[in-house]
Amino acid sequence: MYCIAETNMSKSLLLLYTTGTYYEVGYSIGSTFSERINRYWNESESLIKCDLPFYETLRGQEYFNTALKVCEMNFPQYIQEIRGLADGAKMPFDHVFKLNLAKEVRHLSNNLPIAYKEKSGCSDVYLNTPTVKILGHNEDCDFEIEKYAYMVSVRIVDDQSGTELENFTSFCYPGELPGTTVAFNRHGMVFTANALYAEDTIETAPPRQFVNRSLMKARSIDEVIELIKNPGFGVAIGFSLNVVDIKNPTCMWSVEVGPHANVSLVHVLTIAEEKDPSKSGHYYHVNNYRHLEIEATPDYESSIARTKRIEELPPPSNKHEVKCLLGDQDNHEYPIYRTKCPPDILATALTAIVDVKKNRIDFYLDNPSRDVLPLFYFNVLNRS
């Protein structure tokens, strides 16, 4: 079943609760959101002008076959999930699998305009003191994704024993596996992600979408790191992961990931609880590497501008100030809260505010700095 949560007639987000095997859950998601996924496939300018022409080339066909082969070896359960999603949406499997390779295709298509390379952005703000523990996230993406995105709350069970294998909730781009945006699971692990742009793409390694999907079962930061490393396979492109453990709230983590065959490159920064009242306990991450020593593409204008603005502002000291920072639009060309106003080509689809001490995630579809109520919220350890 699904429900519509809304603050007014113009702001709504579909949420699906579903239980079953990997294939059955995929089928449920695909059938529920079939219209959205098909419309996105038919209307997305970046798909039409970037992805599909790439697959018409010999290199594109070879990459598709290579990616499918490595995913079938490394993540056969998620291939089944995609097969279910495709069947439910009444789309060819190849189409849905291509949706889950879009991030890599942006890297591999060297002749693309920059507007198509930056498919997703995102900004994250941490605040970790004894009295305030907040992770705030802006989910930035292209407009077609914003129109057709949805949320899923999933329980995966073994097809033989019925044993629960995974239990998580995630914001999803149309047709893509959960896990690359904002997500949390029944173990109290909360994840948000930022796109990063390393120079290299490892075409023989599994796509980022599959590695992010695998994190949904993690029980601890140690498991998160091991799953990201993905020994024996690595990951095709880089990303940054922001992690909170509701059950162990003293620390938060910023994990930068670099592409590599066999084992992903990883740098883990621990944002420890700051007990010194003269220090802020504040950290942030956007779409550039800050710690992992890796050859990266030049920073996009938006990342440069958002970094500059965050560093200009005083460090936030409470939830309200985190919301104001994430809603800042002082830079009219490249604001922190994005609205697809040229020259910026992305929009903030959703803001998530994780309040660790309250065991709660608030979701906003409006600018969170405007004293608006969240569209809805979840209790992380007791989904509702």
Descriptive labels:
single chain, 384 residues, Penicillin Amidohydrolase, domain 1, Penicillin V Acylase, Chain A, 9-stranded mixed beta sheet, 13 helices, globular, disordered N terminus
Helix/strand layout:
Layout: E1 2-8, E2 11-20, H1 22-32, H2 34-43, H3 45-55, H4 58-74, H5 76-89, H6 93-99, H7 102-108, H8 114-117, E3 123-128, E4 133-141, H9 143-148, E5 150-157, E6 164-172, E7 182-185, E8 189-195, H10 208-214, H11 221-229, E9 233-235, E10 239-245, E11 251-258, E12 260-262, E13 265-272, E14 282-285, H12 301-312, H13 319-326, E15 347-355, E16 360-364, E17 376-379
Parallel strand pairs: 2-5
Antiparallel strand pairs: 1-2, 3-4, 3-14, 4-15, 5-6, 6-7, 7-8, 8-10, 9-12, 10-11, 11-13, 15-16, 16-17
Helix pairs in contact: 1-5, 4-5, 5-6
Report what the structure shows.
With 384 residues, this protein is an alpha+beta fold. The chain is globular and about 55 Å long. The protein has 2 domains: 95 residues, Penicillin Amidohydrolase, domain 1 (Orthogonal Bundle), CATH 1.10.439; 223 residues, Penicillin V Acylase, Chain A (4-Layer Sandwich), CATH 3.60.60.10. A hairpin with a 4-residue loop joins strand 15 and strand 16. 49% of the residues are buried.
